[in-house]
């Protein structure tokens, strides 16, 4: 870039020409704009034109020094000899002519500007610290002409160097003004600042270098594991002994746990923390060591604990069975396969769990079934027969109660609906007893067999007991007599032969207590019905007297008879007088069986006017 005024080569960032002081085209002059009025502009232009000859050889730095207080700045600092004055400049014969001839034509904004003097008086209003003193009225040279209305001399200085000066034009008395001029920078200060910046740069570089060395040293020592922990070896797949030795050799502690493995028995199958990690020296490393899938020792454990122990060995196929035991309820008393056995992943393991001996539910079972159930439960039993409306031989209760927990071989009492008659007078119950049970019952009651035979698998027998017991006759026709000489009586009941009819015969001594004194009257019949458990729940009741037995009434003793049906059975009671005593008989038989047997014997109910009472009295008393 070149100056438009003098053609001097300038730097790209120059704002003024260092030869002529002209502002470079494009540089901002806003901050250097003068605040002088029109008269000031004339003065500046005149001074500039008239001083052309004296400033051609003046350096820019000297020209800039006009911005000093005239009282403090020496004359030689302004580009003029010390002691020179305005009058001296005016007495120079060559100055006006030379300057007028050399002044550029386009630099004069007004016509009278070309005639101005070559010097202007400057009255300094500010003093730059450290500047030499000059007197007011001293003449100073002004640099290159400027358009005073638009521009002012500007150097790259700060506002601290700005000085206001009074400008006077000797050729125009009374024409004064002020212009703003910037002082030149201090070369020494600039050099000191540059030196300071250089030192600061060196210090910064040194600090950065030291920091880089520190970081490098930290990285190297970290990689050397001088600090920041140690790198943990990876021991997965190694034998337990080798892995333990390696880790302990590096300063780590080792803890082991068993892990079921099918193909890595005795080797490390897991490691925590994992290998290749940086950890603190002395850290505990947990190793999982492979072991076989074997059945653990679980006997004596609670069921849930045993299942968990099997799960820990990766045994998940478990079956549970319960067995009576005196061991604590819910504990394992056996395991199959046994403890220590190696099993496959899908193999079943059976746990046998203790349960207390418990009274089984036997109520409603037959006596035999109940006994078997009690024995299976590991208990013993005894039976007690009681009269009950339940079927004979049925268990009606158990003591201790069903569900009670007992020790092994404890006794359970079974209360059974008796298979025997509730009393020797319960005639209908004889019909429903098992033949063997009835034989047993009669013998228990003190009876003995007077006559016994079996005909077509039907019992025909007469049993006699004590004087206080009724006589018992068993046969197909309850109204008939079964007796005779026998070298050896056969107990058809014990052999299981059928019971098709029963008759109980008694006198006053063997009669039931509830019957009271026996009389041949209706009251005695009713009391015997109640004592023997007979009811008229169905069918027709008939009564008989000697008058009803005509034409055989003359042969009959004094008697009274009554007959009826109860359920599927037929009953008849006959009370009669024999000599000086009163006798009674209670006869029972299944209705259907009785009719069949009577018919087979040639006896028809129609012959007795359809009255079972008449038939019973006739068969018992008249024998026909």
Structural write-up:
- The protein has 624 residues and is α+β, with helices and mostly antiparallel strands.
- The chain folds into five domains: 30-185, no CATH class; 230-291, Trypsin Inhibitor V, Chain A (2-Layer Sandwich); 303-353, Trypsin Inhibitor V, Chain A; 358-417, Trypsin Inhibitor V, Chain A; 427-622, no CATH class.
- The chain is 24% helix and 24% strand.
- The strands form seven sheets. Strands 18-19-20-21-25-24-23-22 form an eight-stranded antiparallel sheet, with helices on both faces.
- The radius of gyration is 75 Å and the shape is rod-shaped.
- The model is unreliable at 28-169 and 175-182 (pLDDT under 50).
Summarize the entry for a quick read:
The chain is α+β, with helices and mostly antiparallel strands.
Key features of this structure:
Trypsin Inhibitor V, Chain A, 624 residues, eight-stranded antiparallel sheet, alpha+beta, single chain, 14 helices
Q: Name the helicity range.
A: 10-25%
List the total number of helices: 14
Uncertain regions spanning at least 5 consecutive residues: 28-169, 175-182
Mean pLDDT: 75
The largest pleated sheet is described as: 8 strands, antiparallel
Radius of gyration (CA) equals: 75 Å
Based on Cα principal axes, name the global outline: rod-shaped
**Distance from first to last alpha carbon:** 176 Å
- Supply the helix-strand structural class: alpha+beta
Number of domains: 5
Kindly state the number of beta strands.
25
Estimate the strand proportion. Answer: 15-25%
Strand order of the largest sheet: 18-19-20-21-25-24-23-22
């Amino acid at each position: 870039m070149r100056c438009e005024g003098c053609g001097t080569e300038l730097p790209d960032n120059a704002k003024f020409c260092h030869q002529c002081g002209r502002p470079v085209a494009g540089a901002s002059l806003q901050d250097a704009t003068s605040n002088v009025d029109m008269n000031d502009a004339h003065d500046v232009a005149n001074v500039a034109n008239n001083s052309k000859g004296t400033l051609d050889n003046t350096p820019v730095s000297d020209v800039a020094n006009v911005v000093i207080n005239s009282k403090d700045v020496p004359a030689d600092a302004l580009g003029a000899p010390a002691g020179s004055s305005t009058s001296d400049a005016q007495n120079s014969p060559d100055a006006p002519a030379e300057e007028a001839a050399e002044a550029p034509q386009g630099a004069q904004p007004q016509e009278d500007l070309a005639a101005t003097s070559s010097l202007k008086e400057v009255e300094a209003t500010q003093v730059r610290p450290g500047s030499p003193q000059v007197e007011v009225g001293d003449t100073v040279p002004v640099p290159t002409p400027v358009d005073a209305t638009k521009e002012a001399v500007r150097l790259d200085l700060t506002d601290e160097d700005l000085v206001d000066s009074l400008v006077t034009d000797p050729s125009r008395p009374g024409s004064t003004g002020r212009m703003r001029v910037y002082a030149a920078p201090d070369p020494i200060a600039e050099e000191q600042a540059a030196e300071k910046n250089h030192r600061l740069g060196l210090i910064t570089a040194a600090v950065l270098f030291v920091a880089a060395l520190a970081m490098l040293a930290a990285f190297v020592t970290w990689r050397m594991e001088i600090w920041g922990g140690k790198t943990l070896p990876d021991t997965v797949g190694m034998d337990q002994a080798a892995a333990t030795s390696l880790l302990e050799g590096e300063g780590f502690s080792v803890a082991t746990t068993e892990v079921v493995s099918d193909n890595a028995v005795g080797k490390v199958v897991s490691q925590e923390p994992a290998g290749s990690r940086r950890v603190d020296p002395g850290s505990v490393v947990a190793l999982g060591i492979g072991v076989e899938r074997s059945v653990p020792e679980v006997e004596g454990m609670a069921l849930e604990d045993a299942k968990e122990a099997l799960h820990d060995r990766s045994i998940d196929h478990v079956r549970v069975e319960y067995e009576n035991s005196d061991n604590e309820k819910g504990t394992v008393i056996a395991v199959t396969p046994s403890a220590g056995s190696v099993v496959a992943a899908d193999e079943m393991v059976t746990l046998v769990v203790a349960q207390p001996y418990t009274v089984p539910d036997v109520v409603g079972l037959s006596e035999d079934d109940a006994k078997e159930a009690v024995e299976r439960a590991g208990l013993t039993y005894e039976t007690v027969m009681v009269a009950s409306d339940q079927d004979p031989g049925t268990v009606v209760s158990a003591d201790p109660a069903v569900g009670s927990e007992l020790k092994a071989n404890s006794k359970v009492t079974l209360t059974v609906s008796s298979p025997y008659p509730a009393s020797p007078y319960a005639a209908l119950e004889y019909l429903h007893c098992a033949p063997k049970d009835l034989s047993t019952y009669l013998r228990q009651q003190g009876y003995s067999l007077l006559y016994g035979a079996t005909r077509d698998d039907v019992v025909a027998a007469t049993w006699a007991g004590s004087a206080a017991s009724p006589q018992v006759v068993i046969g197909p026709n309850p109204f008939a007599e079964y007796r005779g000489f026998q070298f050896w009586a056969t107990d058809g009941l014990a052999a299981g032969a059928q019971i098709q009819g029963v008759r109980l015969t008694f006198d006053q001594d063997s009669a039931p207590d509830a019957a009271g004194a026996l009389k041949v009257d209706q009251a005695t019949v009713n009391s015997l019905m109640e004592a023997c458990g007979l009811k008229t729940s169905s069918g027709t009741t008939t009564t008989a007297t000697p008058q009803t037995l005509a034409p055989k009434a003359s042969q009959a003793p004094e008697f009274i008879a009554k007959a009826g049906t109860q359920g599927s059975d037929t009953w008849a009671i006959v009370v009669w007088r024999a000599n000086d005593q009163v006798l009674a008989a209670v006869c029972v038989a299944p209705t259907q069986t009785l009719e069949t047997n009577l018919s087979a014997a040639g006896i028809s109910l129609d012959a007795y006017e359809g009255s079972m009472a008449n038939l019973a009295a006739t068969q018992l008393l008249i024998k026909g």
